[in-house]
Amino acid sequence: xxxxxxxxxxxxxxxxxxxxxxxxxxxxxxxxxxxxxxxxxxxxxxxxxxxxxxxxxxxxxxxxxxxxxxxxxxxxxxxxxxxxxxxxxxxxxxxxxxxxxxxxxxxxxxxxxxxxxxxxxxxxxxxxxxxxxxxxxxxxxxxxxxxxxxxxxxxxxxxxxxxxxxxxxxxxxxxxxxxxxxxxxxxxxxxxxxxxxxxxxxxxxxxxxxxxxxxxxxxxxxxxxxxxxxxxxxxxxxxxxxxxxxxxxxxxxxxxxxxxxxxxxxxxxxxxxxxxxxxxxxxxxxxxxxxxxxxxxxxxxxxxxxxxxxxxxxxxxxxxxxxxxxxxxxxxxxxxxxxxxxxxxxxxxxxxxxxxxxxxxxxxxxxxxxxxxx
Length: 374
Ligand SMILES: Cc1ncc(COP(=O)(O)O)c(C=O)c1O
Fold this sequence. Notes:
The protein is of the alpha/beta class. It has helices at about 10-30, 35-50, 60-70, 90-95, 140-150, 200-210, 230-240, 245-265, 290-305, 335-345, 355-370, and strands at about 55, 80, 100, 125-130, 155, 175-180, 195-200, 270, 285-290, 330, 345-350. It binds pyridoxal-5'-phosphate.
């Protein structure tokens, strides 16, 4: 059996009627950039989050650095995050011209460890960028407390956790802004690139709207800006998919529960930890080998069995060759948990349109590998 890592075409088939109808509506409207479909999707996205504003931008990376710039965070400023995330989290800080400060992650959830943030704060610190890694919210209550005490901005990198919540809070609710990626593989993905920022801050909304459009919100009138807009065709695809996002996240949770039940006896693996009361939306289902030297042979074992398992992310950002490429970077404390995560992680196939047979086949192969270890 072959088990793919993504189910893009299956998802398209399931939603083809709604997606095609929206695409046709855009194509026949004659308005493809900053048109009515973008406006409609932005309203739907803000409503979904229970927030006042949503601004569509070119991708999830731009969403982060545009937000930093809109808050005047740049050269001379420091931004705290953790290094076991997709590269773009730190890259966006560097694009804004600020210094990235890395602290360790929590050993269980792999999200930023809030207890490590305080020691990293200096007079230059302007913001914290927690990542809702793999689809589970970081501990926003603790992060918000630290941010308030030190008068810092919080920008949630929510590329991976759209629809997640922490029980008493939703993603986006306890921060200045949350950024989203719509690249195809995300829980809400378009057939290409896209991104957005959601916020309740009217000044941020207004600044982002100008920054993404050559510094302009009126024809021929400009200030400094960029071209980073979410096209209406992508907005149409996303609008069709947004209506099914919660159902898709429920299915991801269903497969995660099945994986965890099937793998609970494995002695050589650690399984994902869902914090009590949280809604993890399993953008990724990431397990870890107990020993780093087991990871690569285990990955090969799965790949040879036709299972497209991957790693997220096998090289922590501060361990990338050439780091930090002349950019501002600082590490505070040991990054033991993040480094262990990089060395031991394996992501099993995870998408709503998986079948029971596929999930059970993956479970059987993982269990087979586990039993063969001494
Ligand atoms: C945690 C995280 N941050 C930022 C990004 C950047 O998003 P994009 O690829 O849309 O630029 C991604 C995904 O790609 C991501 O997973």
